UniProtKB/TrEMBL annotation, chain A:
Belongs to the GatB/GatE family. GatB subfamily. This is Unannotated protein. GO terms for molecular function: ATP binding; glutaminyl-tRNA synthase (glutamine-hydrolyzing) activity. Keywords: ATP-binding, Ligase, Nucleotide-binding, Protein biosynthesis. HAMAP family: GatB. Residues 270-290 are annotated as: Disordered. InterPro entries: Asn/Gln-tRNA_amidoTrfase_suB/E, Asn/Gln-tRNA_Trfase_suB/E_cat, Asn/Gln_amidotransferase, Asn/Gln_tRNA_amidoTrase-B-like, GatB, GatB_Yqey_C_2, Gln-tRNA_amidoTrfase_suB_CS, Gln_synth/guanido_kin_cat_dom. It catalyses: L-glutamyl-tRNA(Gln) + L-glutamine + ATP + H2O = L-glutaminyl-tRNA(Gln) + L-glutamate + ADP + phosphate + H(+). GO terms for biological process: glutaminyl-tRNAGln biosynthesis via transamidation; translation. It comes from freshwater metagenome. Residues 351-497 form the Asn/Gln amidotransferase domain. PROSITE patterns: GATB (PS01234).
From TrEMBL, chain B:
Pfam families: GatC. GO terms for biological process: glutaminyl-tRNAGln biosynthesis via transamidation; regulation of translational fidelity. This is Unannotated protein. It comes from freshwater metagenome.
Length: 500, 99
């Protein structure tokens, strides 16, 4: 495939105004699927969490999961939407083996939530309001694995294997209105929007929201129009964007790609495009065509959803703080500087630090662990920091430091053992004997030995050149295998120099 | 008279990935037209004060508690599959994309 021509990003923005739109799919973390009592879990062996309804077998009928309705209403409210007094399911008809019924149960002209807005914040602290058109409920599709061909992609595949464990998992699709005025912030805004949706659903406790696992998926619509033109340009819809970083890159790429085509006098094809993480490019999927004729009609197997006003108010009252409000409150509570706080927000560690503080650690200590050593190790292992340790473990580790049982170096060592799954910090300190040696007797013996081994240094210390003590402290720390408290060693070295 | 044309039937067959001959299309056009006309006769009896509905029984909010129930075994799930690999359904590679 020929490499697409790209225009310099700044130049593209001089010539064109980008208009964005997003469709974010959120998988709800209910215990069961949207329309059947099958477990909502698709990590296991293929085709093990399915019922006749998931397979669309003759005679099977869908029944709506009440918890999924509650979650969807909560999400709608958190997005500032109105909740429809009556909403209805509809069949979206299409023929593809990822859905065994040849239709997906979704919502069409009567979604459960509509007309809202979400405040997002860019890295430099500026905020932006994203208009929400609707949030509707639907079911996820099965997973296809294409076999044969050279690339594992659908082109050239010999056949496909289907696992329906994911079929019927409850989804809410959040659709924005066109977003204007993002200009050069468009890529960052895209990332911040998806991150905010993630924060909202995590705060609501309605989704695991792990992008790498597909719990949260984003389709990014991008179009360009010359400055001053009212008519919207032709848009493309980039799918398969499954990390925050990819969302940002994909939007930037599409702006650059479309600008190059338009500047050359070409036209944009309205199409689905696929994001490729490895090359950082998009490639054309299918063009919008007859296949998009979904012939929606009301789902005759399901009845309208008419949420009681009391239920809506109950769920509204239970809403967590909005992410932007929460950020403002936490920053004040923790007393972080602007820079420290932005660093936390940008690294996506707000939740982890909040939990660590709740588990008893001082905010600054919690921040240092998560944005420092844990983030560093996560980066090396190419995983999310929260996959390595829990907030409770970090709080316990910090408590050991506060008690004086661990120095910084030992604490980092204990952290590595915790990550390796060897137990809680306190257990590891006990079993590995990693605690700081507070028994002065053992220290004094090591210090005396080190001082006598370096008579010239001893002489200098006695002459009042205390900086010379460094060499002895180093030798003692080494002799103690790093388990000594360096401050205490220093005190004792100066004391012993007068006595040996 | 409904507006089911041969073109409509061809289009629907295309969406459903069913290959139809011209004579089949002609035959189905007649049948579908008749079915739609019969259904359309409902609107002759329905007066303007009868609201449209998607369901014959005026019920709403029929829900299920979020409690896990029985599932099929993989063997049961695959029992009627024309082809499978022991754990997954095997289908011919179809051009197109996941929706």
């Amino acid at each position: 495939m020929a490499k697409a021509k790209l225009m310099d990003f700044d130049k593209a923005l001089e010539m064109f105004e980008p208009v964005l739109g997003f469709e974010v799919h959120v998988e709800l973390s209910t215990k069961t699927k949207m329309f059947s009592a099958a477990p909502n879990f698709f990590g296991g062996d293929p085709n093990t969490n399915i019922t006749p309804t998931c397979l669309g077998l003759p005679g099977s009928l869908p029944v709506v999961n009440e918890q999924a309705i509650r979650y969807s209403i909560s999400l709608g409210l958190a997005l500032g939407c109105s909740i429809a007094p009556t909403s209805r399911f509809a069949r979206k008809n299409y023929f593809y083996p990822d859905t065994p019924k040849n239709y997906q149960i979704s919502q069409y002209d009567e979604p459960i939530a509509f007309e809202g807005e979400v405040e997002i914040e860019l890295a430099d602290g500026r905020s932006f309001t994203i208009p929400i058109e609707r949030a509707h409920m639907e079911e996820d599709a099965g997973k296809l694995t294409h076999v044969g061909g050279s690339t594992g992609r659908i082109q050239g595949a010999d056949y496909s294997l289907v696992d329906y464990n994911r079929a019927g998992v409850p989804l809410v699709e959040i659709v924005t209105k066109p977003i204007f005025g993002a200009a050069a912030d468009a890529p960052e805004l895209a990332k911040a929007y998806v991150a905010t949706i993630r924060d909202i659903v995590v705060a609501l406790g309605i989704s695991d929201a792990r992008m790498e696992r597909g719990n949260l998926r984003c389709d990014a619509n991008v179009s360009l129009r010359p400055h001053g033109q009212e008519k919207l340009g032709t848009r493309t819809e980039t799918k398969n964007v499954n990390s925050l970083r990819s969302v940002e890159r994909a939007v930037r790429y599409e702006i650059q790609r479309q600008a190059a085509i338009l500047a050359d006098g070409g036209t944009i094809t309205q199409e689905t495009r696929h994001w490729h993480e490895d090359t950082g490019t998009t490639s054309p999927g299918r063009p919008k065509s007859d296949a998009d004729d979904y012939r929606y009609f009301p789902e005759p197997d399901l009845l309208p959803v008419v949420p009681a006003p009391e239920l809506i108010e109950e769920l509204r009252a239970a809403l967590p703080e909005k992410p932007a409000e929460r950020r403002r409150r936490l920053k004040a509570d923790w007393g972080f500087s602007d820079l420290e706080f932005q660093d936390v927000v940008n690294s996506g560690l707000l939740v982890e630090i909040t939990e660590t503080v709740a588990a008893g650690a001082a905010p600054q200590s919690a921040r240092k662990w998560w944005t420092g050593e844990v983030a560093r190790l996560a980066n090396i292992k190419n995983v999310e920091p929260a996959e390595l340790v829990t907030a409770a473990q970090i709080a316990e580790l910090q408590q050991l430091v506060d008690e004086g049982a661990l120095n910084d170096r030992l604490a980092r060592q204990v952290l590595e053992f915790v990550i390796a799954g060897e137990g809680s910090p306190r257990d590891i300190v006990a079993t590995k004997g990693l605690a700081v040696v507070s028994d002065d007797g053992a220290l004094i013996a090591a210090i005396d030995e080190a001082l006598l081994a370096q008579p010239d240094v001893l002489e200098k210390i006695r002459d009042g050149k205390v900086q010379a003590a460094g060499a002895v402290i180093g030798a003692v720390m080494k002799a103690m295998g790093g388990t000594a408290d360096a401050g205490r060693v220093r005190e004792l070295v100066l004391e012993r120099a007068k006595q040996v | 008279m409904s507006d089911i044309s041969a073109e409509t039937v061809r289009h629907l067959a295309g969406l459903a990935r069913i290959d139809l001959t011209d004579s089949e299309i002609e035959h189905l056009t007649g049948e579908l037209r008749q079915i739609v006309d019969v259904v359309a006769s409902v609107s002759e009896v329905a007066t303007p004060d009868v609201p449209a509905t998607s369901h014959p029984i005026p019920l709403e909010n029929v829900f299920r508690a979020d409690v896990v129930g029985d599932v099929l075994t993989t063997e049961q799930a695959l029992a009627s599959a024309p082809e499978h690999d022991g754990s997954r359904f095997k289908v011919s590679a179809i051009l197109g994309e996941e929706q």
